[in-house]
Amino acid sequence: MNSMINELKEKIYHHKTKSYFGEIVSSIENGNYRSAVVVLYSVVVCDLVFKLMDLRDIHNDVKAHKILSDLNVEKEDSPVSSTWETNLIEKSFKEAKLLENDVYTHIITLKNYRNLAAHPVINSIDILFEPSKELVETLTLNMLNGLLIKSPIFTKNVFVPFLEEIERIKSEFVETERLIKYIKSKYLQHFNKELTEYVFKNLWKMVFRNEGLRETKNREINFKVLTIIYEHNEEVLFTYFKNEQTYFSEFLDKEMILSKLFDFFTMFPNVFVQLSNHAIEILRNRAKSNHNLMIKSYFMSESIEQHFDLIESSLWEVGEYYNQPYTHMYQLQIDEIRFLHQLAVDNQVICKFHDTMISYYIHSGHYRAADFAYDLCIEPYYVNFTIDQFRTLLKGSHSNEQCHGNRYSNSRYRRLLEEVTSQYGKIEDLEKDYPEFFQ
Question: Which of 171, 316, 347, 350 could join 304 via S-S bond, C-beta 3.0 to 4.6 A?
Fold first, then answer.
C-alpha cells in the first residue's frame, strides 16, 4: 500500500473518521479494492457530517446548523432514499464552503466509482466493476489530502472567522508567548502550505494596505499574528513573498502603517530586499525623513556598524551658542535604546552601541536633554565601558557645559571615576585633566 496513506491516516482530524478509516486500509491491504471504494465513500459522507456538527456545536455556525436540520427532515421524510447524501455533498460545497472546487470534483468522481463498485450492471460482461489498486490509492489520497485530515474551519473560507477570532481574543492574550501558543495550537498546526500562504497574504493586506475602522482598531493584534505566522513558516513564506513580490510591495504610505512595516523588517530583515525596487526606494526616503523609522532601518545598511554610524551622525547637529555647542535633532526613546542594545548584542557589536550612546549624551543640547540621555544611555551601561570610552565620555562632557554644568554632574562623574578605578586601577590623568568633575 502507498506509504503516504499510512502517513496521512495518522493526521485524520476527527477521531471517529480515523476509526472508520481502518476498514479502508484493511481492504486495500487484502486486495479488496471494490470494498475499499464503497467504504471510502461512506467514510467521506460521515466525515462531512462530523465536520458540520463541529461547525454547529463548537463554532456556532448558523449555516451548518441549517444544513443538518434540513438533512434530518429530508431523511425522516424518505428514510430509504440516499438523496440526502447527494444534498449533503452539494450543501457542504456551496453553502458551508467546506470543500474547495478540486475536492468537490474528487468526491463526485469517488461517488461515481462507488456506484460502479456497489451496483451490478446487468448489460455488461463484468457485472461488478473491479477497480485497480492504483485507482483506489489515488481516490484514497485525494480524500485524505482534500478532506479527512482537515479541520472543518481550515479551508479558504477560514479567513473571516480567523479574523473574528483574533479580534475576540486580543485582550485575553496580551503576552506574546501565550498568544503564540494559542495561535499555533488552534490554527497553525492544521494549516497546509496553501492555506498558510492564503492567510498570510490576506492578513498582510489587513495590516499594511487597509485603513478601515476595523482594520485600524485591530492592527496591533493582526500584526502580532502576522509575525507569528511568518516566524513559524519562514521557509515557505520567504519563497512565497519572493514569488509574489508585486503584491507585497504595495502598502499605504502612512506613518502608522510604515512604522509597523519597518517593525516587520526588523524582525525579518532578509525579506526587505525581496520588495520591488520602487518600494525599497520609498522606504529609504521615509527613513531619511523620519528619525524613528531611521533608527529601526538597520536592514537598509550594509552592516550593523554602518547603521550605528548613521544614527550617530543623524541625531545631533552643531548649536548656535558657545555654551550650547550642540543640539539634539531627535530625543531617543527608551524602547528605541533597548532595540539598539538588543541589535548590538545579537550582532556582537556592543562596543559600537556604547560608542553611540556616549556620542548621543555628550552632544546634548540642554541640561534636561543631558539628564535624560545620561539616565537612559550612560547609567545602565557604563560598567561595561572600555577605558577609551570612559576617556571619550569625560572629554566630551568637559567640552559641553550642558553635560557638566548642572547640579547632578559632580556626583555622576565621581561614580564614573569609581567605576574606572575598580576596573582599571587609579588613572591619575583623569583627575588631573578634569579636576572639577571629581570635587
Answer: 347
Residue from 15, 35, 21 nearest 144 by CA:
21
181: left (phi over 0), alpha (psi -120 to 50) or beta: alpha
pLDDT at 90: 93
Residue 433 has which C-alpha cell?
585633566
* First and final C-alpha spacing in the chain: 88
CATH assignment of 3-148, given 1.25.40, 2.80.20, 2.30.29, 1.20.120?
A: 1.20.120
* Closest-CA residue to 367 (of 392, 337, 335, 397): 397
CA distance 279 to 247: 11
Q: Positive or negative, the Cα torsion across 65, 66, 69, 72?
A: negative
Q: For residue range 345-375, list pLDDT tens digits in order.
A: 999 999 999 999 999 999 999 889 999 999 9
**What backbone torsions phi and psi does residue 245 show, to the nearest 5 degrees?**
-50, -45
Region of 125 on the Ramachandran plot (φ > 0 left; ψ -120 to 50 alpha; else beta): alpha
What Rg value do the Cα atoms of the chain yield, rounded? 33
Whether 320 shows a pLDDT value over 80: the answer reads no
Q: Report helix, strand or coil for 316.
A: strand
Percent of the chain with pLDDT over 70: 95
Contact 274, 242 (CB under 8 A): yes
Residue 117 is predicted with a pLDDT of 87
Mean pLDDT confidence for 70-94: 85
pLDDT at 156 over 60: no
Distance, in Å, from the CA atom of 334 to the CA atom of 339, rounded to the nearest integer, reads 9
Average pLDDT over the chain reads 89
Decide: residue 101, CB within 10 A, 0-12 exposed, 13-18 middle, 19+ buried: exposed
* Confidence (pLDDT) at 125: 60
Q: How far apart are CA 188 and CA 200, in angstroms?
A: 11
Dump the DSSP string for 395-407: HHHHT-HHHHSST
Cα separation of 231 and 374, whole Å? Answer: 36
